[in-house]
Write a structure and sequence with these properties.
By secondary structure, this protein is of the alpha/beta class. Strands 2, 3, 4, 5, 6, 7, 8 and 9 form an 8-stranded mixed β-sheet that branches. The chain has a two-stranded antiparallel ribbon with strand order 1-10. A hairpin with a 2-residue loop joins strand 6 and strand 7. It is globular.
Length: 289
């Protein structure tokens, strides 16, 4: 029986939520500043894209620069192509080309600086798929392929859509990668009676573009995702959940123009728990036989 003092293997799961996911950049900023190591990562949708960028070596400062570039509506609108695709309502060619420009067209998940898993749902098997190998750009497109908005992505023997359908904050993906201390960031949560819609201003951008029935449908979807997320986090025995209080007008459809404020919500919510994280990941005496 050998004794060894070591810290647990730390995993970070970043959840989906459209522009709300920019809060993840603030979380990573604090982790780097405070010297919190990350051994493995998993992400869904926007959380998956940020996971991929970080594993490619993009520091939080560079990701913030990219987010602020997208906060300029002129830059954001250049990605929008409403020419109807075969499935979905928005073509993704320009988004795919931009991601390839950032990370490299032929970059593969298994060649990144750390093990990561990008979460998707396979329409064939109706199961959650955690992508840990293969083309990174296609994996990013698959994890963020919101059903109805973007077309599903063929990937090996799968037909993949946004992982948020079944696992929006993929703590289980961290377990699969061997993580022992799990930190999850949920940007799409509902806090008791407070939701993304309870304080939605009457002049909110989303009200101007979506009819009331569409807002009702989306709110119902958020309720389902939130309930399923809580169940999944419990099953994975997540050690800590960070929930940045992102304002209601930042959502899957709109909110990139509030990029800096959203990132700061990630900073502040992480600063509130950083002491707890440091205490819990301290190297401890472990027995190995």
């Amino acid at each position: 029986m050998a004794n060894l003092i070591r810290r647990p293997k730390i995993g970070l799961a970043l959840g989906g939520g459209g522009a709300r996911g920019l809060a993840h950049i603030g979380v990573l900023e604090v982790f780097e500043r405070e010297g919190i190591p990350i051994d493995v990562m998993a992400g869904t949708s926007m959380g998956g894209i940020i996971t991929a960028l970080y594993a490619c070596g993009f520091p939080p400062e560079r990701m913030q620069e990219i987010a602020l570039e997208l906060a300029d509506l002129r830059n954001l609108l250049r990605f929008l192509d409403l020419t109807p695709p075969e499935r979905g309502i928005i073509r993704t060619d320009r988004i795919r080309a931009y991601l390839a420009e950032l990370v490299g067209h032929d970059r593969r998940i298994e060649d990144l600086s750390m093990p990561i898993a990008l979460t998707c749902v396979d329409l064939y098997s109706k199961k959650t798929i955690y992508l840990t190998h293969g083309n990174l750009v296609e994996a990013c497109m698959a994890t963020s392929a919101v059903p109805g908005l973007f077309p599903p992505v063929p990937y090996e023997n799968y037909l993949l859509v946004d992982g948020g359908v079944l696992d929006n904050v993929p703590a289980q993906g961290l377990r699969n990668l061997g993580a022992e201390y799990l930190i999850a960031v949920d940007v799409n949560h509902l806090l008791s009676e407070h939701s993304q819609w309870s304080d939605l201003p009457k002049d909110a951008t989303i009200r101007k573009f979506l009819p009331a029935f569409a807002l009702d449908f989306y709110q119902a979807e958020i309720i389902m995702i939130s309930a399923l997320t809580n169940l999944n986090l419990s099953k994975a025995k997540t050690n800590l959940v960070i929930r940045p209080p992102v304002p209601s007008d930042v959502n899957i459809f709109f909110g990139f123009t509030h990029a800096l404020d959203t990132i700061q919500h990630g900073v502040h919510s992480t600063e509130e728990v950083i002491g707890k994280i440091k205490e819990e990941i301290k190297p401890k005496l472990r027995l190995f036989g």
